Structure formats: C-alpha cells, structure tokens
Amino acid sequence: MKQRIITSVIALFLLATMPAWGQTSHEFLDTVVNRHFYAICLGDYRYTGPVNEDGRPDGVGEAKFMNNGEPDGRKYIGPFDDGVLQGKEFAIFSMSNGDTFIGSFKNNLFDKGQYTIASSGEHFIGEFIGGNPYKGTWYNRRSNLIGVVNEAFLNDDLGAYLYTGPVDSDGLPDGVGEAVFIEGSKPDGRTYRGPFASGAFGGTEQAEMKMENADVFSGTFENNLFKEGSYTIKATGEFFKGSFEEGKPYKGAWYNKKGKKIQEVDESKKKSEDAKEREIMRILDTF
User: Fold this and answer.
1) Is the C-alpha dihedral spanning 230, 232, 237, 240 positive or negative?
2) Which of 2, 47, 60, 239 could be 232's S-S partner, Cβ–Cβ 3.0 to 4.6 Å?
3) What is 179-219 written as a DSSP string?
4) What's the pTM value of the predicted model, to 2 decimals?
C-alpha cells in the first residue's frame, strides 16, 4: 500500500512538472510520440522521435503532416536538426498523391536525391533548389533517359548552353525544351524556348529567342537559325516580319512600333538580279 502511494505521488509530480503541449522546455524528455510541430514550407505535423534539450526534433524521426488538423497523406522519415528537416542521413518523403522523394533534405526542402512520379513511374535524379529539380536527369519507368535539367551542351553555331527538356536515345536535346546560353559559367543574356531536333535548334513548333540586348525573335527555327517569324528591336520597338535566310531578313517588311510599314525587304529579287548579271558576264567572257 505504501509503495502504491509513493508511486502515485511520483506520477503526480511528473505530470505537474512536465511541459505543456507545444512548449519548448523538456527537462525530463528526450523522445516524443505524436507531438505537434510546425515546419516552414511544409506546415503542421505530428512528430515521433528524439528531441534536443530545447524540445525540438533532433535526430532521425518521423513526421506525419496535417491540413486543418487532419492527416493529409504526406509523411517524412529522416533526420531533423534543431527542428529543421535536414541532415546527412537519407530521408524518405511520401506525398499525398503517392509521389516519393528519397535523398537528402536541406532547410525543409529536397536537396539531392530521386523524385519519383507514382502515376507514370518517371523519376528525376539530381539536385534540387527551392524543392524543384535544378540539375540532373529524368528517366522513364524502365530507367531509360528521357530528359535533362540544366545539362550543358555546345552548339557550333550558337555556343554553349544549359538545356532543360527531353532528349533522344543519344542523349541530345530533342523535342520542345529551353536553353540558357552561357559565357564561361555565367548566363550571357540569351535564352531559347522551342523545338530541338537531335541537338539542333529547329522544328515546326513556334520558338522564342531573347538576345543579349533584349531583342526578341518569335517564329520557327531551322538548323540553328531563324526561318520565319518576327524580329523585334527592343530599343526602338521596330520589327521585321517575314522569312529569314542565314539568320537575316530575306523577304518581308519592317514596321515601326505602331505597326506601320516602313520598308519592304525582298532579297530574292537581288539574288535574281545578281544571277542575271553573272550570266551576262559569263556570256561576255565567251567572246
């Protein structure tokens, strides 16, 4: 009887001195079960695992995330560092739609690892910034390479660029993607968004290319060069609309920023005249 009384007194003392829910002082507690916490970028969650002397998650534990007080299907198993989801150990993060991430976390966000789309089996392996793929490769369900993110390529006509988009079986840009041109390791101001064909800039889909001086071409490309569309001069607002040859206006017209035609362009006539002149010179040379 005396032992029961002592046990009851100790229990009452522990209950009276234990920190209230959500407080950060845990003098007698080094692990918690299903305790409520909040993570920036991720929201509320119930945590099970070790805590540090300030009562924050610290070490490898499990977090089940909530929305409006109810479990939303997201779950994290991995390292915590003073309340932040991050650490050297690998983590597993399950999304509410079944997608999964396996790898390292930094500041509550994906850092390096693999993100798998449950519905298709496609997966990205590489680095993340802001929780989004930053540099790496995409694979299909069978682990065949299907795309890249910020992968470096070199084009003989246009120079070096970082490419994001689908690739062909040889790993070359193929399909609609995006290129950010670089000088050394830094962007030089040029960007391209549009179709690629086995590494070449071109295709039937519309493309847009911004130049270093902010001029913009919108239209189709062929073999890394403008083919047909409009080229707008940022400084004046004037634009050429028509076809291009060797990247230069070939047949069409220049307009001012208000859309008024200011000059016709027809290099085909000049070519015809030049051809006639060469033919006359050839005939004269025969005499």
Assistant:
1) negative
2) 239
3) EEEEETTEEEEEEEEEEEETTEE--SS-EEEE-TTS-EEEE
4) 0.75
